[in-house]
């Protein structure tokens, strides 16, 4: 395979990932009963008015030209055409929404979900291995710990959903050619609330650069990197769902994540696994009761 055909294969995958994320999100919203009527008229008027005013103020304060206005217009159109609204919003806005949503929640920290979650991944026992291809590249990683309530009670039967990118930065179901549930799974904690997840250490990750978001990053002279991360949703009866991500010390992008989703509490500490090839890391999830 030549470099060129590899590049075009990679960019075809990236273009697909945007469209898939848009379609997935719309399906999920429709399944949850749609969007209309959820937010009351006064609130819509207040928030939409405030955002529109903030943009107008920027135009006036910074004397935005017709050239800049038209560049913005063309770019906004392209975000939709590329299916990159989920990517744009989750990278540059979701972190603030998450901060507001979980400001007062006790227990383990959450962070953003991002655009690539899919519910209903294969259920594994408390110490199962994530679905992966034969020869899937990456260092084996055991992720072990306990799910507890804030009062210290182990939460038997808690559910842990994990999803992460492969070594090339692709998420299954958002890039063609990967098995449906590659690097996605659901673990059920044992009677002590314990789990031992067998997976691979993820690689640093670049958000797709071929579409409108990449165009913005390049035009602004930014970078497209996120630190290597594992995504989790952890749930247990009568407790608030935790959506989070966990990171690895020493990653150069822990301090400049393009999605602003790193928190000091979300750092793992992997060590050589004395019992098997690869690494092992421990992390407990502490869950706040349902309000
Ligand atoms: C990702 O994998 C991700 O986690 C986020 C937040 C945004 C884009 C891609
Ligand atoms: Fe991710």
Task: Describe this protein's structure.
The protein is an alpha/beta fold and 291 residues long. The chain has one domain: Protocatechuate 3,4-Dioxygenase, subunit A (Sandwich). It has six helices and twelve strands. The protein has a five-stranded mixed sheet with strand order 1-4-3-8-9, with no helix packed on it. A hairpin with a 6-residue loop joins strand 8 and strand 9. Helix 3 runs antiparallel to helix 6 (212-220). 31% of the residues are buried. Mean pLDDT is 93; it is low at 1-12. Residues 87, 90-91, 112, 114-116, 205, 207, 226, 259, 261 line the site of 3-methylcatechol. Pfam families: Dioxygenase_C (PF00775), Dioxygenase_N (PF04444). Residues 143-171 form the Intradiol ring-cleavage dioxygenases domain. Keywords: Dioxygenase, Iron, Metal-binding, Oxidoreductase.
Question: Based on helices, strands and strand pairing, what is the structural class?
Answer: alpha/beta
Count of structural domains: 1
Amino- and carboxy-terminal Cα gap: 56 Å
CATH topology: Protocatechuate 3,4-Dioxygenase, subunit A
Tell me the Rg in angstroms.
21 Å
- Average predicted local confidence, pLDDT: 93
Write the layout of secondary structure elements.
Blueprint: H1 3-31, H2 41-61, H3 66-81, H4 85-92, H5 94-101, E1 123-124, E2 140-149, E3 159-163, E4 184-188, E5 194-200, E6 205-206, H6 212-220, E7 225-226, E8 229-235, E9 242-247, E10 271-272, E11 279-282, E12 285-287
Helix pairs in contact: 3-6
3-methylcatechol is lined by residues 87, 90-91, 112, 114-116, 205, 207, 226, 259, 261.
Organism: Gordonia asplenii
Cofactor: Fe(3+)
Keywords: Dioxygenase, Iron, Metal-binding, Oxidoreductase
């Amino acid at each position: 395979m030549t470099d060129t055909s590899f590049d075009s294969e990679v960019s075809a995958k990236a273009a697909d990932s945007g469209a898939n994320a848009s379609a997935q999100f719309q399906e999920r919203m429709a399944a949850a009963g749609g969007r209309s009527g959820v937010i009351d008229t006064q609130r819509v008027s207040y928030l939409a008015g405030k955002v529109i005013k903030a943009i107008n103020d920027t135009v006036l304060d910074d004397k935005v030209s017709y050239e800049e206005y038209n560049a913005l217009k063309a770019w906004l159109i392209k975000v939709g055409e590329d299916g990159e609204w989920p990517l744009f919003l989750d990278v540059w806005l979701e972190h603030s929404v998450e901060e507001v949503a979980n400001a007062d929640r006790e227990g383990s920290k959450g962070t953003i979900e991002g655009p690539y979650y899919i519910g209903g991944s294969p259920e594994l026992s408390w110490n199962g291995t994530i679905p992966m291809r034969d020869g899937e590249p990456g260092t084996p990683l055991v992720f072990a710990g306990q799910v507890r309530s804030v009062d210290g009670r182990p939460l038997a039967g808690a559910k842990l959903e994990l999803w992460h990118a492969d070594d090339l930065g692709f998420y299954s179901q958002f890039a063609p050619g990967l098995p449906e549930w590659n690097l996605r799974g659901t673990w059920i904690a044992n009677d002590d609330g314990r789990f031992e997840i067998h997976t691979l250490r993820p690689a640093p990750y670049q958000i797709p650069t071929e579409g409108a978001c990449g165009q913005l990053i390049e035009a602004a002279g930014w970078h497209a990197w996120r630190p290597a991360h594992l995504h989790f949703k952890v749930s247990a009866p009568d407790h608030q769902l935790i959506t989070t991500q966990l990171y690895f010390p020493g990653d150069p992008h822990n301090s400049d994540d393009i999605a602003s989703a790193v928190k000091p509490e979300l750092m793992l500490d992997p060590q050589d696994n004395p019992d098997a090839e690869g690494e092992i890391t421990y992390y407990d999830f502490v869950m706040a009761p349902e309000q």
